[in-house]
Design goal:
Radius of gyration: 18 Å
Strand content: 5-15%
Number of strands: 5
Order of helices and strands: EHEHEHEHEHH
Distance between the termini: 30 Å
Helix content: 40-55%
Largest sheet: 5 strands, parallel
CATH class of the largest domain: Alpha Beta
Number of domains: 2
CATH topology of the largest domain: Rossmann fold
CATH architecture of the largest domain: 3-Layer(aba) Sandwich
Strand order of the largest sheet: 2-1-3-4-5
Shape: globular
Structural class: alpha/beta
Length: about 180
């Protein structure tokens, strides 16, 4: 699956406010691609392309999208603007940028007015946004639940493997290279 190109069957729309946000979102996009989740990626700005951002959100559901992920830094109005124009769930990803390193973006995303909610993940947490979007998809399609179950199983196995290594070699040897 090539997540770099827009698809007609996309379930998740990922919108970034600037191309400089793409590296932050890359690990989440790679995960969606690995899991075979159809998605599209757009660069749209709440301030520089407000009409196009509104059009994207207004037509998202009729295009088949189920969830929108919106990443933006500093004022981070993009997630809120998209949420104002759609009834689909919007997940905001605050991007660390500017003097406040993403705190301003986080506050902008989580302090939405009543009636226009935006979910938020942590600063630069593009991967968590992708996982949350798939969790939302899994509510109506068990295919995605299987992907989530396998992911969590792999996470648990990795932690247990590290614990076994630590117990075998002790903390000093682990710190000196006993880790993967």
């Amino acid at each position: 699956m090539n997540g770099a190109k827009a698809k007609n069957n996309s379930l998740i729309g990922v919108v970034i406010g600037s191309d400089s946000d793409l590296p932050v979102m890359a690990s989440g996009l790679e995960l969606l691609d690995e899991w075979g989740v159809p998605f599209e990626v757009k660069i749209l700005s709440a301030h520089r392309t407000p009409k196009e951002a509104a059009d994207f959100a207004q037509t998202a559901a009729e295009r088949g999208l189920k969830v929108i992920i919106a990443a933006a830094g500093m004022a981070a109005h993009l997630p809120g603007v998209l949420a104002a124009y759609t009834h689909l769930p919007v997940i905001g990803v605050p991007i660390a940028s500017g003097h406040l390193k993403g705190i301003d973006a986080l506050y902008s995303i989580v302090q939405m007015p009543p009636g226009i909610p935006v979910a938020s993940v942590g600063i630069n947490a593009g991967r968590n946004a992708a996982i949350l979007a798939v969790e939302i998809l899994s509510l109506t399609d068990p295919t995605w639940q299987d992907k989530l179950d396998m992911y969590r199983k792999k996470q648990a196995e990795a932690v247990l493997d590290k614990n076994a290594r630590l117990e075998k070699c002790g903390f000093r040897a682990y710190l000196d290279g006993g880790q993967p």
